[in-house]
Each structure stands twice: as C-alpha cells, then as structure tokens.
Amino acid sequence: MTEARGSAGPNSATHAQHAPGTPCWVSLMVHGLAATQEFYGALFGWEFQPGPQQLGPYVRALLDGREVAGIGQLPPDRHLPIAWTPYLASNDADLTADTVRLCGGTVGVGPLDAAEAGRMAICSDPSGAVFGVWQAAAHLGTAVTGVPGTPAWNELLTFESVTVAKFYETVFAYEEEPVVSADFDYVTLHIDGRPVAGIHGVGNALPRDRGPHWMTYFEVADTDETLARIADLGGHVLKPAHDSAHGRVATVSDPEGARFSIIGNPR
Questions:
Q1: pLDDT band at 122 (very low <50, low <70, confident <90, very high)
Q2: From CA 141, how far away is CA 225, in angstroms rounded?
C-alpha cells in the first residue's frame, strides 16, 4: 500500500454511483458456501441475504444492513482458485470487455445480466490476474467503507508494474502515480485525482502457486485481535502483522484458502 487507501477513512461513508474504474464490489466464489458465511459472519459481523443466482447460489454480505461484499458457490466440478475478486465499475460492460480483449486481456465470463442488479463480466489482465467488471443498475456495489468489516483497498500483486499498468490505464482511463524508488515497484491508480487502487510489482516474491492476483484489504478495529480470531475460526496467518505508514497490516487466508489482507490502526 502507498500513502493512500482509496475511499477508506475514519468515518463510515455511504456511496452512490461509482465512477468508472473505481473498485465497487468484491466477490468470493467458494465450494462451501454455508461454512464460508459462518467464517466471515463471525470474523466481520456480516449478515447475509440472497443475491442474483445466474452463476449459482450467491449471497450478499451486509454490515448494519448495508451491502459490503458477495459470496457465491462454485459448482462441485469447478476447481478454480478460491480468491477474492474486485469488480471495477463501468458505464458499459460490453464496451469494457471489448477493450480488455483489444488490450491483450481475456474475458472469461459474460458480459451477462445479473437479474435487475446490473451487468457483469469476469476478465483477466495480460498477466493472468482476474478482476470483474460491473455496470450498475439496481445494485450500485459496496454501500459503506471506512468502518471495520468493509473493503479498504485493492492491490494487484504482479511481476512488474509498468506493462500491466498500461493495460489498466487504457481500459479504465486511470491516471498513474509511480513510486520513484530503485527497490520498490509500485503504481497508484487514480480517478479524478483520487487514489482508488494500487499495482505492486514484486518480481520473484510472487507466490508460485498463485501467479499475479488482486488482493483485497479489509478494515479491522484491531489487527492482532483479528488475527487471533482468524486462527480460532480455522483461517491461517500468511504474513504476520506489521506496522506500516497506513496502519497495522497482515495477510491471511480463510478456511478454503482465499487470501486477503487486514488493516487496522497502528499500535
């Protein structure tokens, strides 16, 4: 993470229509939907209600009645990586999907309508990192940020930032702000002068079993207390907590192996 953490702030913020390119939703596809709801419900205090079922059973996670994320169930015969996937806002999902293809990316699902909620596509960038595209209708996306249990930031972990940043800049019209450093490869993506996501080139430090992938950070009140709760709930600590300029950060996985990061106030 760089000096900015997107729209997360000290106070709860409710969002209207998201500007094109803004991460507007995060979704997780798993094999054990009930067990996953139990894990995240206990961890973040989420409650759940049914969502569009086009791709199988799907629920939306609510925090104090406001939508924060989605969890769907994979068919038993689909052995895809279990991963949190950010959805990037679009005014025209079909045009965005066409642009993804023209720029060397891949469209794996859609574009298709998700009932009255909106129109979506699942894509991957030229390095293979998977992301979603969301054209909002009735469902605008994440309704609250800046409080524990909500997405705080989305960051692409990839081999190097320059080439893939050009892809996202072309598809979503981001403005780039590279970090000028000989040993730190990072680009912050901006929309209308506001930081919305990051690209972190980590070279050979990229996990071999994952390849390039997007990482979602969730806000928590106390990072260390949350880590203890994750272990009790059957999750795993992948990178222990450390203090950064933006808060106390750790990387973890849920019982099915979906990786995510948590960030709370520094000690």
A1: very high
A2: 28
29-50, pLDDT tens digit by residue? 999 999 999 999 999 999 999 9
pTM above 0.90, yes or no: yes
Closest residue by Cα to residue 191 from 167, 175, 171, 169? 175
- Amino acid letter, 143: A
Query: Does residue 203 contact residue 160 with C-beta atoms inside 8 Å?
Result: yes
> How crowded is the C-beta side of 170, counted as CA atoms within 13 Å?
17
Chain centroid to Cα 70, Å, comes to 11
**Residue 51 has which token pair?**
């969502």
* CB neighbours of residue 229 within 10 Å: 15
Number of H helices, E strands in the chain: 4, 18
